[in-house]
Amino acid sequence: MVTFVAIKNTKNMSKEIRTLAPQSVWNCFADLNAVPRASKKEEEVIAFMMDFGHKLGLETLKDEVGNVIIRKPATSGMGDRTPIVMQSHLDMVHQKNAGTNFDFNTQGIDMYIDGEWVKAKGTTLGADNGMGVAAIMAILQSNDIPHPALEALFTIDEETGMTGAMGLKGGVLKGEILLNLDTEEDDEIDIGCAGGVDITASRTYNEEPVPEGTIAYQLLIKGLQGGHSGMDIHKGLGNANKIMNRMLFAGFENYGLRVAEINGGGLRNAIPRESTATVVIDKVHQEAFEYEFNQLAEVVKSELKTMEPDLSITAQPTNIPSKVMSLGVQEGVINAIYAAHNGVYRMSADMDDLVETSNNLARVTIKDGKVEVMCLTRSSVESSKEDLANTLRATFELAGFEVLLSGAYPGWTPNVNSPILEVLKEKYAKLFNEEPEVVACHAGLECGILGQNYPDMDMISYGPTIRGAHSPDERVNIASVQKFWKFTLEILKDIPKK
Fold first, then answer.
1. How far is residue 370's CA from residue 363's CA, in Å, rounded to a whole number?
2. Active-site residue identified among 31, 151, 158, 474
3. What is the CATH topology of the domain spanning 197-409?
4. Cα R_g (the chain), whole angstroms
5. Of 91, 186, 188, 446, catalytic
6. For residue 10, pLDDT beyond 90
7. Is 158 a catalytic residue?
């Protein structure tokens, strides 16, 4: 089977990772990271997980959308405890640096230790949510960890639509408490999250011949950090699509710049790090355009120097394209992207330092007579999510776009009276001699969706410390994984009686 050949081929690559403590968790993580698992392309990782459960002799099933459920009976003396569900998602965000030669479809993630962190070489690491998956795998294969009857729920497609959680039918799960292992700060216990909606604005345009007497440039924005469009949206990180549009706006206004192509950003849930554009200007403006482009580039870099010290904004001569956008459409598109809200829209009035509503202007493509702009709008308040979505819709419709709202999913309403929350708070304080942060997050967790079909299930979320999720700078703290594992084992011992 392809999956297991890949695992063997990555044994040496992940050798140093497998020596870390707790070894059972890191070995499972290394095995998992040898398997391709992009969102909506989870066939191999589903087969891997099904085989994992069957080899353990445990009841293992796949539901109609591809979620994998593995059931393990309670250990000796734990049969009177409330049955639980331990849940993480199988898919990961596939992102790589522009100069990295890597095929996510055939290669295992190339991991290494960098001081206190585990990282990947030029790609996302998959700690989101692979560390949660690995911890559950380690518990399933253990012979000496006390736990109540448990169901391991491995969902698919969390990162690009949460269709796994949405497709899980009521009545499949038997557990009454859900432990979601997808939080990214080891001192936090999550009790709520934002919902989201995908916004796609598209339109066509007529292509025109390139005007005579022009010179062409490739504009390139790179070196941005990127990051999680929920957890990192408040940090003031640069957005490659907005920066590129700023450069285009100035070039068009001052020198009649014409756009041939744009390719900016990637996935909706990743803050865009890179953008390229092919443009032309009249040769008579060459010297002035290059001077003012570089001046504006320095201004933008100065504005973002604290958060984005590696930002690069360049214009290099290139071959003249055959066509450019029609002038009227180009002006409307540039204006619409300039006007479209990106970043924090509203902070929560009820929880300190919580982003309530935001938008990530994630992807911009212009080519062959078609324009597409993709956003992800998040909010913990449904009415505010709708308000921002309509703001964006109106912005793009004014420029002649058709706007589609799709993939909406609900937030998770905090329950401060949750019984399992009390267990985790007490256990955390006892283990680590400090109080945990009980929070709601601006990311999308699957708890709210799962709660629609399992409204009586008591849910909580926690996990190890992960930085730079959804970007090639993703890393997981080694000591934090040890803390997370210790916390998990103690939680399992103290699950309340039925």
1. 13
2. 158
3. Alpha-Beta Plaits (3.30.70)
4. 24
5. 91
6. no
7. yes
